Amino acid sequence: MTENPAATKMRANFRRHASGKIQQIRNTAENGGESLAATVNHHVDEHSALLNRTFQNSDGQPLYTDDRTWVRWPASFGYTSWQTLTSNPVNFLLVFVPVGIAFGATHGNPTVVFVLNFLAIIPLASLLSFATEEISVKLGQTLGGLMNATFGNAVELIVSIVALKNGEIRIVQASMLGSILSNILLVLGCCFFAGGIKHKEQHFNSTVASTMSSLMAVSTASLIIPATLYAAMGPSKTHDKKTHNILILSHGTSIILLILYALYLFFQLKTHAHLFDEESEPEASGEDGADGEQAERHVLSPPAAGVALVIVTIAVAVCAEYLVDSIDSIVESAHISRTFIGLILLPIVGNAAEHVTAVVVATKNKMDLAIGVAIGSSMQIALLVTPFLVILGWIMGEKMSLQFEIFETVVFFLAVLVTNYLISDGKSNYLEGAMLIGMYIIIALAFYVYPDENTAEGASTLWSTMSQR
Questions:
Q1: pTM (2 decimals)?
Q2: What is the average pLDDT across 431-438?
Q3: What are the distances in angstroms from CA 290 to CA 83, 174, 257, 299, 410?
């Protein structure tokens, strides 16, 4: 049977091309010239360029820059979507978003619903952070960093509002405290550890860090005072009377904390902006070449980033609704306390994107930015989000207060104290990071064995012990 001439020619060209490439690799290995890996990478680049031509027009321009509208818009949408979805490795978990919503809408197994929506919120938090960063590109580092911290806490805020609406006060309180502890211990500890492994010693703006630490100390006092007041009132007053007094104190304290946060914003953005500008000048001067191009490159336009923020926020709200609704079943089936879920598990979800971002910038020796992400986010939760939720609970008729349990308040105080000690000198290393991580693990173990039953009688037990003495 006669062979097709076209097939014969194709086979001959293939053999000629393959033999030439093999001989080229042999010559490279024998002559000690270009390394084998470099040769292979060169051929990979050739084939990658060939594949990219598929997404180019006849003039060699990318399709998303084509002059034809009917070509440019779909290509631009596809390119932007791909760049957004591949912006963070955790985004592969997005497959759990529709699955988690479907299981929640069909009232599936509560444990499965909790796990699926728990995994779904992680990439949504990443996309929320990515869209915020795209908007903040045009706002400058100070205002952009503030916006990153604000929307970085959006997941915790949404989950807490849903829990507050359902009357899950313990979940709200534990989630707020857990977010703070996660940021100042786990996130900051990983930044110090990862940065210290690559760099022997790192430096950051101690003035800015000291200001943030002072505000964190004030927020700590705002939690200690209600807890000790509740214990000091003792058994002489009824539970309803004590709760009423604590609510009055919490509402007043929340208003003061919100005013302090507003003054801090005025301090940061207006009167003492030079302190925070000095923080970013060394980083800006050091960004040239490829790093500078990477810093200036952005994928989403402000309108597109705004639309992405709205869509992702809605998805987070839906997943959070199903997540909170399944907590009761998780507590009963897995024998895990509500305090542990709110204080350890939920903050890990909300801080996943911030955690990755902070560690990456710490390895690049940008410790001021890492400190701003970790401590700045914690400070915003303590001075803005938590007081806001107390005021919101007041409006909704829920008894949300700043009265945390004695054990939780002591843990919070010790965490802030240790963090303030470690950042006071403006230097960090991997040992300090290991200290923070170790303390967070100890706290997580303590809350794992801490039963919810103790929360209702902790203060009264403390008072009884003090009275006996």
A1: 0.71
A2: 93
A3: 18, 43, 43, 17, 47
